[in-house]
Structures are given as structure tokens and as C-alpha cells.
Amino acid sequence: MIKSLRIFLFSVLAIAILAGCEEKKVDTRCEFNITSSPDQAKITVNNRDGGVTPKPIKLLPGTYIMEVSKTNYKSSWQKLVATASSKKSIEIELEPITSSVMIDSKPAGAVVEIDGKQVGQTPFIIHDQTIGKHSARLLKPGCIPQEITWTVEDARPQQVSGNLFSNMGTLEVRSTPAGANIFIDGKPCGKTPFTEKIEQGEHTLKAEMNGYNSHEQKVVVNRDAKKDVQIVFQMLPGNLNVKTTPAGASVFLNDRQYQNSPVEIKNLQPGDYTIKIKLPGHDPIEKKVTIVAGETAEFSETLDTNWGGIDLIVHPPGVTIYIDGKKVGVSELGEDKTSSKVFEIRNMSSEEHVVKVAHKRAQPAEKEIKVKVNKGQITRPKPINMWIADTYVKLKDTGREMRGKIRQQTDDEIIFEPEPGIAQKYTRKEIETIRELKENE
Question: Could you tell me if residue 10 is inside a domain?
Fold first, then answer.
């Protein structure tokens, strides 16, 4: 019994020892992360299906052949070297299957347009055409544009061709008068009379001629037909641009007065005109100008001065001076206090002028003289005498108040003029107040 128990315990112990000595199993495969552009490509490893990209695959250590394939793309072959317990990433760029296509046309020399861009002229070869349907537009002056299509199914080259048909008509343009410049769709094409073949359809016709209004219209030219256009031009008016130095001169054209210079006179009938320029203080100008239809004539003149001047003396000073009705200043007190300083008036035109002097206390209130001014000379007329009340007097007995001028005075008496030419003698005892008048009295 004891012997059997010993045998059993020994067996259990042996099994435990053997179990502890057994090695643990380890995954030594290599993991490959396969991606492609474009994705959803088929993965084949050693002729075994590996799924579609993007896809991780695990391989035991060793060397493998992998194919990545996708419809309409060239297959990519890769050698995979799997090392134990490692991770690797592989990116595959798939190259699309392409073909070459030669595009031809009758007649040759047509522009090939693809997706709105001109890429060449027939015969023209396009490379790298991908699998699928394609199209191009053929354009040639004088021909109807044509759309052509083709399909690329594999890498084999192919040829496509288009037949272009004429779309030309005849445009004939005449004008009165002849010799007008012709523009079709903005391009210069010649002069009238004009005959030319142009593409069928609507075109913009423009005709221009110096001195006449321009003409523009839409014309429709039909294939294999003639379009006749007759244009009658209307003569344009002309303009005259007048400038003078100095500015501000009066401008007359055929005796009609316009604005002062500088001035642009518009809408003049072509022909010859007489222009007159006048400016005070300057010599007048009279000349001929010619107005050309549709053009602006330039008239520019520098006026010669004919200035003179006046030196004016007024008795007494302080009067307002006017020349030809325009105020020019007030005379100032001279050294002797009875006469004014010389009042200088310059830049006056060489003609007769009206000189007026005025004062509110003068009798009469104003005086006028006419002075002839000569070119380059200073004229000094005789001094102008005015009677101006300058003194206030109040008498004691009567309380009478008077404004006038003191002609003479002593310590005892004065001789007083209340009006021009009327003199009164008063003693100092008769006078209550005597004073000079203020400017505003």
C-alpha cells in the first residue's frame, strides 16, 4: 500500500516537472501594411488572394512575390522579405493604362481643342490617353467646327479623323463717300468698296471715315451666299478750342460772342471763320480759322499789352474814386493836408475812361471827368476840386447848427461857408461849439 502511494506521488511530480519544462509557443510572423493609390486594389501573394488595399497581411519569415492590381491600371510586382516578428509598410503607386491617339482632319491644319484649351493642330498625337471615352473639337477658319469622340480600351494606339466643311459666305460693303475703313468683329479688313469671303453667322460691321460719323451694324452672312451693305455717311461738325495768355479775353466768332477764354466752341459747320479776341489793356486780335469736319481746331494766342495809367490828385483827400463805374480806392491825405497824395491807377487799356470821385458831404456829391489813356503812358489830369463840409458850428443865441468849411479864422473871428460860395463872418463870442466833423458824420 505504501509502495503504491509512493509510485503515485512520483508520477504526479514527474508530470509537474515535465509541464513546467515545456516551452511557450510564440507568433514570429512578419506584418506588412499594404496601401495603394488608388485604393481598393487586389493583393495577391505567391498566387494566393490577400484581399484589397488598404490591408495588413501577416507572413511567416521568408521571401514572397506580391502582385497589386486594379482594373485599367498596370499591375505592380513587389518582392516581400519577411523577417521574424517585424512590421513593415509598403505604399504602391499604380500607373494607369494609357494609349496614344493621333487626331487627323480633312483639310489638315485644324486646331484641336480639348476641355476648352487649344492643344495643337492636325495631324496631332496625344499621349497618355487613359482608358475610357474622350472627345475633342476641331476648329479651322472658314470651316464648321466639328466634335469628334473616341474610346480607349487598352494600350493599343489608334487614329481618329474628322471631315471639316466650308462655312464661308461673301460680304460686300459700299459707302458714300467711298474710302471708309472697314472693321469686322473689331479687326481692320480694308476700305470701301469692300468684298471678302467670311465665315457664315452674325458679325459686327464697323465703318469709319475722317470727318464723318462712324457706322456700326450687325450683319448675318449665310453659307455660299452674298450679303450687300450700303452705307451713307453724315459729315460731322467741328470744334474750336480757344486759349489766350492771359485768360479771360472776350471771344467772337463771325461776330457772335462766346464765353471768355479758355473756351471750346462745339458743333461748328466745317468752313472758314473770323475770330476776334478782345481783352482790356491788350491789343485786339482778328484772324481767320478753318474748321475741319470731325476735328478740333486749336487757336492759341499771347495778347500784347497796351496798358497805360492815370495819376490823380483830389482836393481835399478822403474821396472815393471810381474808374468806369468800378471802385478803385479812396484818396489819402497829402503833406499839405489840403490835397491828396497822388492816387496811381495802373494797367488801364489805351482808351477813354470815366473817372468819378464822390463823398457823402460833398456838394455836389460826385464829379466825373473823362481821361484818355495812351499805350505805355501815364496821364495826369488837372486836380479835381470838391467842396466837402469838414466843420461843425453851433451858434449861442439862436442855437443854429451848421456844417460847412472854415475859409479863414483868427483868434477873434472866423469866415464860415455853410455852402459853396456863401461865406459868413462870426465872432468867437457868437459861437457856442466848433469842431471838426468825424468821418462817419
Answer: no
What are the pLDDT digits (tens) for 363-378? 999 999 999 998 889 9
What count of residues does the chain have? 441
- Which residues are registered as beta bridge partners of 424? 416
CA pair distance 330, 54, nearest whole angstrom: 107
**Residue 60 included in any domain:** yes
296-302 β-sheet, strand order: 263-268, 238-245, 296-302
Q: Which of 278, 302, 326 is the last residue of a domain?
A: 302
Domain annotation covers residue 3: no
pTM higher than 0.85, yes or no? Answer: no
Residue 11 lies in a domain: no
* CB of 169 closer than 8 Å to CB of 226: yes
- Reported as a pLDDT band with limits 50, 70 and 90, residue 12 is very low
Q: Tell me how far apart the alpha carbons of residues 391 and 396 are, in angstroms, rounded to a whole number.
A: 16
First to last CA, the chain: 168
- Within 10 angstroms of residue 358's Cβ, the number of other Cβ atoms is 16
Site of grid cell 493599343: 156
For residue 144, the domain's CATH number is: 2.60.40.10
Domain of 78 in residue numbering reads as 30-93
User: Can you give the pLDDT at residue 433?
Assistant: 93
**359 — phi, psi (to 5°)?**
-155, 140
